[in-house]
């Protein structure tokens, strides 16, 4: 589709389905945040006249390829997934979330797992983590959450009071907090951890049929985690341990690999599933929706220049290709704007034209000017649309498949508020040794909190997930489970 010289494209090379009408909830609106083409046009225009990442500042990256091992074209028309054996070049960036660019690799933190597929229909970015869930489920809470993970504005020190105050007032965080404080909170290496798309996405096939999907990258190296004491030792002696390990493994020809699986949910199941399938703090049971193999990702080439490739790499969950679209996940909806806008600010309005981000598909649009525009800037060609000079136009076949929305325009929460069943199930799945380490890690992290009410509030959440869980943490902190639980 994108090979047609008359097709209008996004800056990541994907065809545009409609350049005359923005995406709205019904004919009268309001406009939808998931209209990433609209957001890109407006945000790029704002930057046409002439830092370190806010999150995920410390990272490592590598090149490789993705090879399809199972035909799932019955579910998606995405070209790079169209046939068994098809290979697509890709780049991945692993990262920690909260620390600065000079922080240690072996801290307890989620790991970013961002994959850029250079497909024939434009770049597809899958921007996830090494956990299947997240701390919050609405993007409006993201700046506040990240503020708690950063430094106190007066002392410039990490602030456990802020961390646990926020979590204790945001019970939806309990699932991710339990994972973070478990053994999985400190991976042994970047090669020895799984990756997840985390959000729910929409797949559309050639006939326009819709399914909901979740992505799971399973490491072929096996899952390995670091002992707390060893992690602290490495943080002091070799803070770049994970970066070094990944580079050395690839340089030695020990190419790390992951199998990609998806869970597929029929479109109508979203209305009846026992958890809201668009709530990123929840997982789907693999008994209900088993893992289906898609392909294999192999990392086989190190960057030639860290700054040019890893530091300037930009990823956005809004970089879709035909056959893959957004779901109503509220956290995802906010990220569709926030990530690309962060790159326009940090790297520049033309970040997608840098070699590491440049799509293999030809880019044809009417975006002009902006800082560091190192190409031809469109030359003397027509620079607006619609026009009668034969410039590129939209491809109706690339329009997202509509889905029904209803209700009043209002600020509302998800209907489902069971924040305790899944973390409780996770706790009960752990071995006794794993539970003991989990409790020790939580007690160690909460001990510096100097307000008892924050500790008691958080203990109450652990207790609601599993009474033993809460009781053990309370005992470790020298407190009792609140009577009000």
From TrEMBL:
Gene3D superfamilies referenced in this protein's UniProt entry, alphabetically: Catalase core domain
On the tree of life, the source organism's domain of life is Bacteria
Query: What does the record give as the reaction this protein catalyses?
Result: 2 H2O2 = O2 + 2 H2O
Citing just one GO molecular function, the answer is:
heme binding
Q: One Pfam family for this entry, by name?
A: Catalase-rel
**Keywords assigned by UniProt, alphabetized:** Heme, Hydrogen peroxide, Iron, Metal-binding, Oxidoreductase, Peroxidase
Which residues are responsible for catalysis?
Answer: 56, 129
The cofactor required is:
heme
Q: Which SMART domains match?
A: Catalase (SM01060)
Binding of heme occurs at: 339
Q: Can you name a GO cellular component term? A: cytoplasm
Enzyme Commission numbers on file: 1.11.1.6
Q: Which family does it belong to?
A: Belongs to the catalase family.
Would you tell me the protein name for this molecule? Catalase
Question: What species does this protein belong to?
Answer: Paenibacillus agri
């Amino acid at each position: 589709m994108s090979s047609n010289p008359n097709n209008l494209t996004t800056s990541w090379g994907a065809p545009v389905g409609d350049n005359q009408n923005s995406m709205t909830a019904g004919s009268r609106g309001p406009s939808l945040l998931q209209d990433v083409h609209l957001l890109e046009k407006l945000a790029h225009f704002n930057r046409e006249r002439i830092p370190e990442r806010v999150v995920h500042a410390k990272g490592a990256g590598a090149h490789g390829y993705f090879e399809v091992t199972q035909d799932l074209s019955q579910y998606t028309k995405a070209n790079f997934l169209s046939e068994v054996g098809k290979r697509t070049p890709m780049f991945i960036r692993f990262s920690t979330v909260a620390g600065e660019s000079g922080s240690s690799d072996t801290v307890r933190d989620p790991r970013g797992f961002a994959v850029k597929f250079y497909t024939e229909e434009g770049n597809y970015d899958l921007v996830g983590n090494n956990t299947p869930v997240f701390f919050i489920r609405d993007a409006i809470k993201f700046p506040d959450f990240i503020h708690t993970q950063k430094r106190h504005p007066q002392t410039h020190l990490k602030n456990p009071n802020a961390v646990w105050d926020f979590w204790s007032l945001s019970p939806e965080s309990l699932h991710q907090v339990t994972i973070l404080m478990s053994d999985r909170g400190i991976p042994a290496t970047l090669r020895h951890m799984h990756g997840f798309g985390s959000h729910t996405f929409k797949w559309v096939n050639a006939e326009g049929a819709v399914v909901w999907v979740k992505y799971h990258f399973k490491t072929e190296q096996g899952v390995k985690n670091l002992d707390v004491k060893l992690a602290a030792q490495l943080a002091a002696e070799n803070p770049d341990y994970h970066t070094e390990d990944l580079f050395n493994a690839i340089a030695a020809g020990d190419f790390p690999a992951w199998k990609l699986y998806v869970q597929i949910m029929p479109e109508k199941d979203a209305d009846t599933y026992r958890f809201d399938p668009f709530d990123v703090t929840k997982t789907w049971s693999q008994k209900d929706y088993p893992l289906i193999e898609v392909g294999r990702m192999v990392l086989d080439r190190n960057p030639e220049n860290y700054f040019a490739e890893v530091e300037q790499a930009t990823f956005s969950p809004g970089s879709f290709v035909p056959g893959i679209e957004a779901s109503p996940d509220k956290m995802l909806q906010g990220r569709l704007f926030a990530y690309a806008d962060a790159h326009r600010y940090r790297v520049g309005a033309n970040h997608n034209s840098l070699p590491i981000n440049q799509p293999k598909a030809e880019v044809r649009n009417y975006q002009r000017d902006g800082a560091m525009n190192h190409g031809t800037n469109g030359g003397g060609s027509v620079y607006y649309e619609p026009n009668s000079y034969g410039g590129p136009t939209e491809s109706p076949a690339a329009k997202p498949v509509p889905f029904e929305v209803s209700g009043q325009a209002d600020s509302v929460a998800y209907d489902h508020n069971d924040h305790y069943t899944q973390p409780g199930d996770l706790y009960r799945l752990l071995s006794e040794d794993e539970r003991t380490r989990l409790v020790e890690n939580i007690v160690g992290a909460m001990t510096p909190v100097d307000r008892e009410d924050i500790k008691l509030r958080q203990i109450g959440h652990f207790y609601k997930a599993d009474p033993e869980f809460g009781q053990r943490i309370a005992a470790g902190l020298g407190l009792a489970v609140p009577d009000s639980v």
